[in-house]
Write a structure and sequence with these properties.
The structure holds two protein chains of two kinds. Chain A is α/β, with parallel strands linked by helices. Chain A has helices at residues 29-33, 68-75, 99-108, 116-119, 126-136, 142-155, 172-184, 202-219, 230-236, 254-259, 264-272, and strands at residues 14-24, 41-52, 57-61, 83-88, 91-92, 109-112, 190-194, 222-227, 239-244, 247-253. Helix content of chain A is 37%, strand content 23%. By secondary structure, chain B is α/β, with parallel strands linked by helices. Chain B has helices at 47-54, 81-87, 99-102, 109-120, 125-138, 144-147, 157-169, 187-204, 215-221, 239-244, 249-257, 327-331, and strands at 3-16, 19-32, 36-40, 63-71, 74-75, 92-95, 175-179, 207-212, 224-229, 232-238, 311-313, 316-318. In chain B, a hairpin with a 2-residue loop joins strand 1 and strand 2. The relative contact order of chain B is 0.14. Classes of the chains: A alpha/beta, B alpha/beta. The interface between A and B is large, with 45 and 42 residues.
């Protein structure tokens, strides 16, 4: 049994131990009345453990239904695990007496979602969207808040003047930049990116991926990167975990993984990716 | 090889309160029997608009405002709605992105197939049923006879897309328009559907217009590819040629921007992706001349004035006078 004394200097930014999550399966009405039957459950995530050291990117890959997003939601504290521990910089996120820590942790964890169309409030101006975390955590107010918003917008490659606009005035890639600026606003150390470029065109995807990489090296961010696209993962992550029906079937350094995946499922995933033959003749 | 589908100078306009938007601006292309033509482009390029124009399903007020569409020796862009309806499904089959929405959730799949078969090919119910089972078998549904009685929700996404393909084949069409047929599917299922499409194309000699944003799918499936940008053809040619030797600056940029599994493209987690600055212009604000010039590194002042037409370059045709000069240009 590992002890949970916070040792912030060496603790990885995220450590997940034996994480599991069950979901109840709806039962037909009449059968619910039959006594003596256990409620059927669907185990979406089974005993998953991994760590992410500071400043690194860990990618979770898998097909739909493999439990990627469930893990993401547990790691940021949106879904409570059935079993297991999530530690952020050594602090147990779901400890029963951890209300205070959880509040403090919230500022340090942020999330970027797949579809910026859905994750940005269409009736708010960009300044309100990006300013909300700053206000919520009491980081600044008034002029200082506006200055911070402008600063974050410039960091992600937009201009300070964009603060007055609404989300619909931007293209898909720019909207994802706004979502990233919003994630940066609480000055987090750890960002969970759940399919951040799946809704974007390739030329725009390259811009957003490069931006995420630049931000990581400039601000020392740590990423949990969730994707079904192995080529994107190869480009972004230092370490890869492959999920199959909620079980982590393989975990390896990116280089080792792409040179020769061990698990049969990983090999199948890799071979199913359409290959673009370039620089060679027919 | 004779061309089955030919588009010449196709123009699609969308009338608007303040003037007219030109969605497709003079696109010419052709597909031969037994050939897969990939139509690639990013959102807003007009790829689905072209597919819809061919099958006469442009959403109002969009309409074909110029050019011609020929299916074999029949011109089909001026047909009356009832004539078009006879072609649709019979001579041109369709596969859409989301199999969930292309199947009727309240009808058993056997009934959907039998109805479609009898609509296009009058035959007794028993014969249509045999034919439906044969089609399910052809697209790789196991135990097809038993599955006839299943509802759409009882199938997985990949199987549903197979059933949609069976429906598209029900009228024995000569041309299939597949609009993002694998986008909603996982990669392993996508690979199966790609194999199926290619097999059908080879076995039946059907021509396929494959509309997608995914260069990987094009590389695995298509014989020729047509790259669209802002409602125009940027580059078109054999897949091997266009992907291995892209000539148009947009195609070059697009190929560089795709993250790759190829070890030659840099260390994992280290190399920076090359990116094209900016984004596809909206249809209401397309730049003058070559629509790509504001994002193009090799643009000359002429590019903002002159709208380039595709010209032969190697085995491709490229709409860029800077990157694919003709012999006359080179001489002068």
């Amino acid at each position: 049994m590992k002890h949970s004394t916070p040792t912030t200097t060496v603790a990885p930014v995220l450590s997940v131990e034996g994480l599991s999550r069950d979901f109840n399966i709806p039962v037909p009405f009449l059968r619910r009345l039959v006594p003596g039957r256990p409620r059927p459950v669907f185990r979406a995530v089974t005993d998953v453990s991994f760590e992410i050291p500071r400043g690194q990117t860990y990618a979770l890959v898998g097909e739909s239904g493999s439990g990627k997003s469930t893990i993401a939601r547990m790691v940021v504290g949106l879904t409570r695990p059935t079993a297991g521990v999530v530690r952020i910089a050594g602090h147990d996120l779901f400890a029963p007496d951890a209300r205070g820590t959880r509040q403090a942790m919230r500022r340090r964890i942020q999330m970027v979602f797949q579809d910026p169309q859905a994750s940005l409030n269409p009736r708010w101006r960009v300044e309100a969207i990006v300013g909300e975390p700053i206000r919520a955590f009491g980081l600044a107010s008034g002029r200082a808040l506006a200055a911070r918003v402008a600063g974050h917008l410039e960091t992600v490659g937009l201009s300070a003047a964009d603060a007055r606009k609404y989300p619909h005035e931007f293209s898909g890639g720019q909207r994802q930049r706004i979502a990233i600026a919003r994630a940066l606003a609480s000055e987090p150390e750890f960002i969970v990116c759940d399919e951040p470029t799946s809704a974007l065109d390739v030329s725009v995807q390259a811009q957003v991926l490069n931006l995420l990489r630049t931000l990581q090296s400039d601000l020392g961010l740590t990423y949990l990167f969730i994707s079904h696209d192995l080529a994107v993962v190869r480009h972004m992550a230092q370490r890869v975990g492959v999920l199959q029906r909620g079980i982590l079937v393989e975990e390896a350094d990116t280089k080792t993984f792409f040179e020769g995946p061990k698990a049969e499922y990983s090999q199948m995933l890799l071979s199913a990716v359409p290959k673009i033959r370039k620089g060679t003749d027919e | 090889m004779t061309d089955l589908l030919t588009l010449t100078d196709l123009v699609v306009d969308i009338p608007h309160r303040r003037g007219t938007l030109r969605a497709i601006d003079g696109v010419s292309l052709s597909i031969a029997r037994g050939e897969v033509l990939g139509l690639v482009g990013e959102s807003g390029a007009g790829k689905s608009m072209i597919g819809n124009a061919v099958i006469g399903l442009l959403a109002r007020p969009a309409h074909v405002a110029g050019g011609e569409i020929w299916l074999g020796d029949r011109r089909i862009d001026r047909l009356a709605p009832h004539q078009m309806r006879q072609l649709r499904g019979r001579r041109i089959g369709m596969i859409f992105q989301d199999p969930q929405t292309s199947l009727n959730p309240l009808m058993r799949i056997g009934d959907q197939l039998v109805e479609t078969i009898r609509l296009h090919r009058p035959m007794p119910a028993a014969g249509a049923r045999t034919e439906a089972i044969r089609l399910l078998d052809e697209v790789g549904i196991p135990a097809p006879e038993e599955r006839m009685a299943y509802w759409p929700h009882q199938f997985s996404g990949g199987q549903r897309q197979r059933i949609v393909i069976a429906l598209a084949l029900a009228g024995e069409p000569e041309l299939i328009i597949a609009d993002e047929p694998t986008t909603a599917l996982d990669v392993s299922v996508q690979a199966q559907i790609i194999r199926l499409l290619k097999r059908l194309c080879a076995d039946r000699g059907v021509a396929v217009m494959l509309i997608t944003h995914d260069m990987g799918v094009i590389a695995e499936t298509a014989d020729r590819v047509c790259v669209l940008y802002a409602g125009r053809v940027a580059e078109t040619g054999p897949v091997t040629e266009v992907l291995s030797r892209p000539r148009h600056p947009y195609t070059v940029g697009l190929m560089d921007a795709i993250p790759s599994l190829d070890p030659a493209r840099g260390e994992p987690g280290v190399a920076t992706l090359r990116q094209i600055p900016g984004a596809m212009p909206s249809i209401a604000a397309r730049p003058s001349g070559c629509a790509f010039h504001p994002r193009c590194a090799s643009a000359t002042p002429d590019c903002a004035r002159v709208r380039p037409d595709p010209r032969p370059a190697g085995r491709s045709e490229v709409a860029c006078p800077v990157c694919a000069p003709t012999h006359e240009d080179a001489a002068s």
